[in-house]
Amino acid sequence: MNELRREVLRADLADLARESVPVDLREAVLQGSRRATVRRRVATAVAVTAITALAIGTLAAVLPGRRALPTHPTPTVTASPKVTASPLGYADPTLSAWTEKTGPSFPGTLYLAWLNPGQTTGTYRLDFSVLANGRLRTASLGDLSTDDCVNRSYALSPDGRYLAWIVGDPRGRVGQTLVVQPTDGGPATRYPAHAACSSGYGPYWQPDSRSVFVYDNERGPGTLNITTGAFTPYVAYGSPFSVWSANGAYRAYSDGLEIVVLDRNGQVVRQHAHPAGTGCCGGFSVRGVSNDGRLVGVGPSPSETSGSNWGFMTVFDVATGKDVKLPGPRIQAVEQVVFGPNGRLLLVTMGPNTTLTLYSAAGNQIAAAVFPGGPAVPGVLAYLP
Amino acid sequence: MGEQPLAAPAPPPSLWRERATTAEDFDAFVRARTPALLRSAYLLTGDQYLAQDLVQSALIRTHRAWRRLETQAHAEAYTRRAMYHVQVALWRRRPKESTMDTPPEPRYHAPDEAGAVLNRVLLRNALAKLTSRQRAVLVLRFFEDLSETETAQLLGVQVGTVKSQTSKALARLRVVSPELAQRYFAEVTR
Q: I need a surface site. Which of A95, A165, A242, A324 has the fewest CB within 10 A?
């Protein structure tokens, strides 16, 4: 006997329903309503005319010595074209030249992304920054809207050499392009991949930094080799929407109930239910996996996007099934957890300012970089020690 | 001094205010409720543009009935009813229920994660393989959380039809997506 898990189905339906794009239908509705009124009036007038004509014709026919009036063809009332929202335009930006200034001191190389207000109202600028040796190099993609594919898809290769993003209509209606931009300033390469324009669908860089996983609307999930342009359909075990460890040894995903960790050959090495998958506390998402495949960075699902839980991450031990106590102050809002080599942990915490703190495996603070507070909060794309 | 001719009476201010408020109310209603209506419509149609068309058609009916609707709650109920009725009318116009051959394309979603994306892909593909009638019943019963009786009333069908369509929809989900079957159905030993 099987029993329906109503709550799980309900949560999944709600999650899927959020894919709908909110649009302003007011004008279209008012126009449609006016047209319906006009159509009704025309139809009524036509009906009255037809009945009158019929009556006159009938009268004329029955009256002696009178010829019947010529009858006119009844006009056909055709429906007006349906009003639909016009397709959204989309940005196809090119990366600006890199600028350089003094930045906070931090060991290794940090790759950051920031979303800042653009030059005109309602537009945004996506800044990519590389912090190394106390110098902060920044290049931008401009004139974006918050809905642009670019803003929802940018990803940095594990070796930090390439940025990739998707260009196209946010509604996924038109053919889209995968853009791969070397971070050393070389020319971008464009691949005619009909990649899905939606957060979470990729692109996901593979550990070799030469192939990118994309969810192609025509060919399905697969990896695109940026050297040859060849597309290889995804056939491995488990979800293709996986996050890789920095060393490329493990990948992890959640199926909404459990967290699954696989090795690079696709063999499941660990699997454990997460408390948030029981339906008690909303959904959860896997956002990173440690180099030993044991710890997984867990964030809330989109259904938990309100209240104090928004954006905060925890670290889950897939071996024990328990949350790991994070180093640093007991009460802190951890926005992002990045797993480094040798058990190091990079935490992005929010307060009046955004602080990036690097901890050793023993929980001792190695370094910290503070970025001024404000609307623009940096997200860490990668950390190379 | 002779009596001054009476000027044409100005419309009572309250009337103007009422009309203006009515238009503003409708505007506010559309603005506030369109996203939620679109979510339901998206599940019903599996397509952003069809969902927009469906909501637009329902809102046009609501606009034309606006003066008869006393509160926004009534308006929402009226719009949802109109939406489902348009959908039901579409079923009835079709000679035979057909399922979509090609799953709709993935669309915009807020920043999220891999696992939820996989579930969405699976569910979207599975819903695309249901008939419109089965999808509507699933949406009403498990997304809108309506009872069988309420669902039947809204769709204008018998409760037995709702039961049979729900059963068929769930059975079809299990067939077309074993992964979802595992996720949605728990083994119960009696």
A: A324
